[in-house]
Amino acid sequence: MTLEDGMAATRTASSSATEKLLLHHKENHFTAGDVVRDVIMGVSDGLTVPFALAAGLSGASAPSYLILTAGLAEVAAGAISMGLGGYLAAKSEADHYMRELKREQEEIVTVPDTEAAEIEEILSQYGLEPHDYSPVVNALRKNPQAWLEFMMKFELGLEKPEPRRALQSALTIAMAYVVGGVVPLLPYVFIPNAQKAMLASIGVTLTALLFFGYIKGHFTGNRPVLSAIQTAFIGALASAAAYALAKVLQAA
């Protein structure tokens, strides 16, 4: 075997190994960020607000059935309010995207040279020289749709929203709020004495806050234990403030 044959065989083997590596290589990226954000928003508020309300009413010596009734009413109203807020936020985001998309379409048609210069400026920020990015610019100018998508993403930093994003956000936040809001109210269903029910609610809710905070930290890339402690602390602080305020008003 000649030297050239050996080098060719080596290149073939290397190419084959690279192809196998690429076939077996899978990148596991988390892509459900919007859903997780909605769940976090709904559950965190659902755990905290009814918890604080129940603690405040318990501090005012209200009976368990009244606390439960008020709590469930708050959960229903809160779920509707939070869901509507999520819907309006997602709808506004989609409307903003469509306005900017239309504006970019018009600029590509009316001032193409200016838009091309903006592509060059964007690519130069990544360390590319004119001889590197010129073919890219020319290719994009020949493909208006790709050009438009490039400008939306890299110039404006806007991602195309999902068509049903607004409705999905509303439902996710509302359901998450209900799930979180029911937790601190469960003890009042089974314990007639409001003070004892409040102590049970504190234990159940703080446990839920710690668990939720840990899961939230895991999905958001933060330290799970620290996230759990922070989430539980915020919930405990809110309920303590509501309870203290109720006691002050009762004494007055």
Total strand segments: 0
User: Main β-sheet: number of strands, strand sense, barrel status?
Assistant: none
* Proportion of beta-strand residues: under 5%
Please count the helical segments: 10
Task: State mean pLDDT (0 to 100 scale).
Answer: 79
The rough form would be described as: elongated
Which stretches are low in confidence, meaning pLDDT under 50 for 5 or more residues running? 3-11, 27-31
The oligomerization state is single chain
Distance between the termini: 101 Å
Computed over alpha carbons, the radius of gyration is: 28 Å
Helix/strand structural class: mainly alpha
Helix share bin? over 70%
SSE run: HHHHHHHHHH
Structure explained in plain terms:
By secondary structure, the protein is an all-alpha fold. It is 84% helix and 0% strand. The chain has 10 helices and no strands. α2 (33-59) packs parallel to α10 and α9 runs antiparallel to α10. The radius of gyration is 28 Å and the shape is elongated. Mean pLDDT is 79; it is low at 3-11 and 27-31. Homodimer. This is Vacuolar iron transporter. It is a multi-pass membrane protein. Pfam families: VIT1. Keywords: Ion transport, Iron, Iron transport, Membrane, Metal-binding, Transmembrane, Transmembrane helix, Transport, Vacuole.
